[in-house]
Design a protein that fits this description.
By secondary structure, the chain is mainly α. It is built from five helices and no strands. 75% of the residues lie in helices and 0% in strands. The chain is elongated.
């Protein structure tokens, strides 16, 4: 019985550690998305693209976000600073994508 309890305790500690890391990552991503939305709404997209938060969102969009491929490509294009697709911050499309990502977290 003690062996079973020790194994269960070790498993719970491992799960708690994994949860804590996941929670921390999600909070960081939500904060980055909030900063991005604020910057875009203020028309400061260029300045935002130079921040650590832009890098965090880029990583999240590439690795973990559940987005349609076309939406992911549009977001990554914006975050890379490429304007070849004609994105205009006033259009609000990227802001909408970011708000949706934040809502779904």
């Amino acid at each position: 019985a003690e062996d079973t309890m020790a194994k269960a305790t070790a498993l719970r500690e491992k799960e708690a550690s994994e949860f804590s890391k996941e929670e921390s990552d999600l909070k960081t991503n939500v904060a980055a998305i909030a900063k991005a939305v604020t910057a875009l709404e203020k028309g400061a997209a260029g300045a935002f693209l130079q921040t650590n938060e832009a890098s965090l969102i880029r990583s999240f969009a590439m690795e973990r976000a559940e987005l349609p491929d076309s939406t992911r490509q549009e977001l990554l294009s914006f975050l890379s600073g490429s304007e070849s697709d004609g994105y205009s911050p006033q259009g609000g499309e990227i802001t909408g994508i970011l708000k949706q990502m934040g809502d779904e977290m």
